[in-house]
Amino acid sequence: MLLQPNDQWRWFMGEDRHLMLELGADMLFSSPYLKKQLVCSDELNQCFSVEDTGLYYNFLDKLTSISSSAQRVQAALNAVAVARFYKPLMPQSWFFEPQADYHQPELGELIALDISTEWLTLMVVETSPSASVCISLSGDTLLSNSKQFATFSAIKVMNDRIISLDCSNQEQEIRRVG
């Protein structure tokens, strides 16, 4: 079951210093994002805006490859939280392999990043001509000896590191047919 936003949804800072979203009577969504990662006050109490709703539906539409409705909603709400409240990030592209084909991603697009041992799947939550902010949809991954990258972690990367999953899937389909 997909959750439908309404005028009772509101963002607030939980007692454990995580960003929370009240979804109505007895329903809370706890994001993994701590106050220190966000640009909001301890007294945050904001309605889920029209812009939030637009982002939520955009992200849900892009997550059709995830079969579980609960996981789609969780990913979409975390993506809205990052797009709306996350502190600006500096690119951390050095963890990922550069790509020969430059790809300018779209908002909500599912992309991959190559860490030389595997590809990570992420969703783009903010774009610019040179870099994109993404959240991880992959399981917890060690990027280096000192950097753990958890599910729904946010990272900014230069667009020359991004692998379009659409292009990758098209190439696999062409190989299968040809």
Chart the SSEs and their pairings:
Elements: E1 10-13, E2 18-22, E3 28-34, E4 45-47, H1 50-62, H2 69-85, E5 110-114, E6 119-127, E7 131-136, E8 141-144, E9 147-149, E10 154-158, E11 163-164, H3 165-177
Antiparallel strand pairs: 1-2, 1-4, 2-3, 5-6, 5-11, 6-7, 7-10, 8-9
Helix pairs in contact: 1-2
Report on the structure:
It is a single chain. With 178 residues, this protein is α+β, with helices and mostly antiparallel strands. It has two domains: 76 residues, no CATH class; 85 residues, no CATH class. Helices cover 24% and strands 30% of the residues. It contains three helices and eleven strands. Helix 1 crosses helix 2. It is globular. The C terminus is likely disordered. Its main location: cytoplasm. This is Cell division protein ZapC. Contributes to the efficiency of the cell division process by stabilizing the polymeric form of the cell division protein FtsZ. Acts by promoting interactions between FtsZ protofilaments and suppressing the GTPase activity of FtsZ.
